[in-house]
Amino acid sequence: MHRGKGMKFVGDSRVPAERKPNIPKDYSEYPGKTEAFWPNFLLKEWMVGSVFLIGFLCLTVAHPSPLERIADPTDTSYVPLPDWYFLFLYQLLKYSYASGPYTVIGAIVMPGLAFGALLLAPFLDRGPERRPMKRPVAVGMMLLTLAAMIFLTWESVVTHDWEAAAEQGKIRAEVEIDKNAEGYKIAQTNTCTTCHGENLSGGAAAPSLVGTGLSAEEVAKIAKEGKGNMPPGVFKGTDEELKKLAEFIAGLKAE
């Protein structure tokens, strides 16, 4: 029997016969399509970020934040308005079956279903196609959600009373109110503070009583006959109490 007769050698194609040095790929054949991360690419990123940052700072200087008066927890007439990206939820809570006794539906159930659908989207549409026409489930859910958000946001903007919102948050001149004064106690008894606020600085439904420039006689006339949103006959006290109330309000001067 000759040497090596009947023997077979098995090789593995995954193991190279010759070891080559670990040389990175040459990108010279792709001119203009690649560049060094440092400093070329990183410098461009910094430049773009700087432009956006400077632009944002310029906007903050040109359009300062719309600050309102100091929050008053005793002012129950103040109606807060969320930021624009939550206006669709704010509008949703205005509808009959999403507010009042059904607030849980509008605040938890509906947003929960939308969020759950977003989580299940990869499992509901598992096709390899990337064209929108080939992915009707995912595209349909996205378009339906987007249309609902745009519609609700638009409805919230056009139906909101922006004048009343600006008035209720308006920064007004304040005065030190003597809450032990008899005139203030009469105002509390006749529910003046309910609409005009604990500091009589006004609210969404009533103007400020500080620095009105009205005389005591004019204040007394308005208290009995009403004016604007204030109906007549709100004051229920005696003539002496009306005089003290009128003098107290007329004497409130802005600092």
From TrEMBL:
One of its GO terms (molecular function) is heme binding. Residues 27-154 form the Cytochrome b/b6 C-terminal region profile domain. Residues 178-253 form the Cytochrome c domain. It is a multi-pass membrane protein. Its main location: membrane. Keywords: Electron transport, Heme, Iron, Membrane, Metal-binding, Transmembrane, Transmembrane helix, Transport. The keyword Magnesium does not apply. Gene3D superfamilies: Cytochrome Bc1 Complex, Chain C (1.20.810.10), Cytochrome c-like domain (1.10.760.10). PROSITE patterns: CYTB_CTER, CYTC. The keyword Iron applies. One of its GO terms (cellular component) is membrane. It holds the Pfam family Cytochrome_CBB3. It is found in: Membrane. The chain crosses the membrane at residues 46-63, 102-124, 136-154. Heme c binds at C192, C195, H196. InterPro entries: Cyt_b/b6_C, Cyt_b/b6_C_sf, Cyt_c-like_dom, Cyt_c-like_dom_sf, Cytb/b6-like_sf, Cytochrome_c550/c551-like, MenaQ_cyt_c_Rdtase_cyt_b/c-su. Belongs to the cytochrome b family. The main subunits of the menaquinol:cytochrome c complex are a Rieske-type iron-sulfur protein (QcrA), a cytochrome b (QcrB) and a cytochrome c (QcrC). Component of the menaquinol:cytochrome c reductase complex. This is Menaquinol:cytochrome c reductase cytochrome c subunit. It comes from [Anoxybacillus] calidus.
